[in-house]
Structure formats: C-alpha cells, structure tokens
Amino acid sequence: MIRQLRIYETFEGNKAAFHARFRDHALRIMARHGFHVLSTWETAHDGRSEFAYILEWPDLETKERAWRAFLADEEWREIKRQTAKAHGDLVGEIEDRVLAETSYSPKLL
Question: What's the mean pLDDT when you consider all of the chain?
Fold first, then answer.
C-alpha cells in the first residue's frame, strides 16, 4: 500500500470556486477512476494558500493508470475548461509526492 500527497497552490480570490469544483466534481470523477481519497486539508506555506490531500493506492502502477484515466476523462476536461473560463486559474503550483511507509510507522485506523 502506498499513499500519495498532493499539494495545490490556491488563490484567495477564487478559493470558493476551487473547493466547489473539487468537492462537486473532482472527487466524484476520481472515484469513478478508482481513487481513494483519505482526507483533505487547507494549509498555508511561505505566504501562499494551499489545499492538500492524501490518496491511498495498492501500488504505483494502479496510481499511474488511474491518474492517466482521470486526466483524460472528457467530463473532467470540460469542467476544467468551464471553471477556468468563469474564474480563471484555480490552481497554481502542484506538488506530488509518493509516501512510502516506514516499518516503524504507527498503523492508521
């Protein structure tokens, strides 16, 4: 089992639109492609607003295949086009990290 940490730079002026898109569309479409989102957070770092979430995957191959399918999903592509047209860019920089659990890590519930 692996976990993936995603951190998105968000913008104060259109944060509500970002959250609506993620909550109402991205999560649903991700689930259709086999994503398992463990949790989501708002955070801040170096003076910028951020949105972070952790995904759980059985292996790297599954993760890669699911991301390719999600990014190619026509419904998702259209939602991104519509929200960008209405609100501008909703996400700036994206950080993506695979988290490999250590042998001594406390077990999650």
Answer: 96
User: In sequence order, what are the residues at sequence separation of 6 or more whose Cβ sits closer than 8 angstroms to the Cβ of residue 57?
Assistant: 1, 2, 3, 4, 36, 63, 66
CA-only gyration radius of the chain, Å: 15
Is there a contact between 10 and 92 (Cβ–Cβ < 8 Å)? yes
Q: In angstroms, rounded to a whole number, what is the distance separating the alpha carbons of residues 22 and 91?
A: 11
The residues, any chain, with a CB within 8 Å of residue 101's CB and separated by 6 or more, are 1, 2, 3
pTM over 0.70: yes
Q: Hey, what CATH class is 2-99 in? A: alpha beta
- Residue-wise pLDDT for 89-106, tens only, equals 999 999 999 998 888 989
The rounded distance, in Å, linking the Cα atoms of 17 and 35 is 22
Q: What is the reported pLDDT for 99?
A: 95
